[in-house]
């Protein structure tokens, strides 16, 4: 075997990894919500319910992180990218490219799901409205704006806290994707009835694009709340658990702590 060090991923490789990883995330979780969680119960019908959707979210992120984490850092979420930048784990100059790739990957996945849906008996013009994130009429259990903002902000903060913890220099190597995926499953079980569980502006943009005017009108909340939660978590984590640090590589979430 060769002992030559692995080459540093190029910018294009990082962006493609983020695009594909976000595609897998949206395809997995929204596809499950559309095709497997909307059927009535009974013999011959599949209904995985909220638990199935939450597991699909966690598993989609888990496999994407293992597949592409070594290339791009495995963000697949603009809020995560912002949180890592605030925490000093990611270069701000790379943020626009990452966010663009994530949004494109999500929209492509939603378009693919819509194409599949159009050939089946469940197709309707606003099928994506039911899987778009929001409050009042868009909330599965009818929660209002305040509840929506709270759950999306708090859940994203918890998610980013876990990411920062399991990718720190103190954490055990190799387990980060597993912890991140399981965390997403847990917080999704809390948030799905309230907000349809986004924690991810790219995922929310992807469904709102095909979800109609109401979904687009409420999209701002699915952008503001996750980014606010991620920034809060990053600031608190950096102040409490880390000394001043400098970035050692955009694709590497580890930091070099000053003596």
TrEMBL record:
It is a multi-pass membrane protein. It is found in: Membrane. Its main location: membrane. It comes from the Bacteria. The chain crosses the membrane at residues 15-36, 48-69, 75-92, 99-123, 143-166, 178-199, 219-237. It holds the Pfam family MIP. The keyword Signal does not apply. InterPro entries: Aquaporin-like, Aquaporin_transptr, MIP, MIP_CS. Belongs to the MIP/aquaporin (TC 1.A.8) family. This is Aquaporin. It comes from Agromyces aurantiacus. The lineage of its organism: Bacteria, Bacillati, Actinomycetota, Actinomycetes, Micrococcales.
